[in-house]
Amino acid sequence: MSLCVFTYLQGEKSFKMVKIVCLGLFGIMLSLASLGQTTDKATGPAFDYHRDFKAILEQTQADTSKLFYDSLLVRFLQNDTSFTKAETLALMIGFTENQYFQPLEDMEKEEEIFDHNKSAEFHEAIEKGRPYLDTHPLSLLVLREVSFAYTRLGLYYGKNGQFDSAVICQDSAKYFMDLNDKVMEAMIYSGKGRSPETAIFSLGLADGEYFIPNVGFTIEKKTADWIHKKDFMEIIQAADESGESKIFFFAIQHAKAKIDDDKADAMAMKKKNKKPVKKKSKQKATPTSKAAVENPVPESPPATTDSIPAIQP
């Protein structure tokens, strides 16, 4: 796994990778051309969204299955080193039947947590992010944001000689980044993303937009449409370090199926009229709450086992 230190790009809801300590999959500035699942000529790719999604989802809801959601979640939160990419992907698919999976509302809440970090309100990001992860343990953005907030607080504590708190924050930052890496690896495993047929599985509506900067690309433009066997996908054009543009496809049919179109229109209008977050100048990450540094790593899985009936597209 890797612990990544990020810096914000001005005016964009994304990170630019500036330093990476690599212990696993992520090398310095990954190239997506070398990522993704391998394809067996006889059986096809290890995961095909249109072929496998429903079958895997059924297994995650069956308590006799090796892919039972509750069992997988315990191992994921324990940061089990034997937890495979395929199992993480199954866990993500299983979460689409969780009562807390509300793609539109989730995206709005995640952006609020992002905005706290953007304003250097690191303990506020943690105090909102940790409860959110109790019900959304696979949130790609919030796992990253909480890790980033702990990293910044740890630097503050270390600078001020509060070494016990600094170590706690450092451990917490690594824990949440390790979980973030698991989700990233599962997305990479799910497909190369270079065609609709090999689309990358994206749990949330905007996870593709968080995935692309994480692997060193810059988003140029994005759209969404029904394009492969009537599956809804996000299509992102992104450039690598050399400036070469590539197109990536992210499968989000499962999220689109749970969206109320009227609510989506209302939220889009609200976002359009939203005032930009003002960056606070020279704000120090001075902790105001013990909640930000006490009990940093969960000891038991959160209550995320309730499910709702599948909503067909």
List key phrases describing it:
disordered N terminus, 313 residues, four-stranded mixed β-sheet, disordered C terminus, alpha+beta, 10 helices, two-stranded antiparallel sheet
Short account of what is shown:
The protein has one domain (2-24, 46-276). It is 43% helix and 15% strand.
Could you characterize what this model shows?
The structure is a single chain. The chain is an alpha+beta fold and 313 residues long. It has one domain (2-24, 46-276). 43% of the residues lie in helices and 15% in strands. The protein contains 10 helices and 8 strands. It has helices at residues 49-60, 69-77, 85-95, 103-118, 122-135, 140-159, 163-190, 207-214, 253-256, 261-272, and strands spanning 2-8, 15-22, 39-40, 44-45, 200-201, 218-228, 231-239, 245-251. It has a 4-stranded mixed β-sheet. A hairpin with a 6-residue loop joins strand 1 and strand 2 (15-22). Helix 4 packs antiparallel against helix 5.
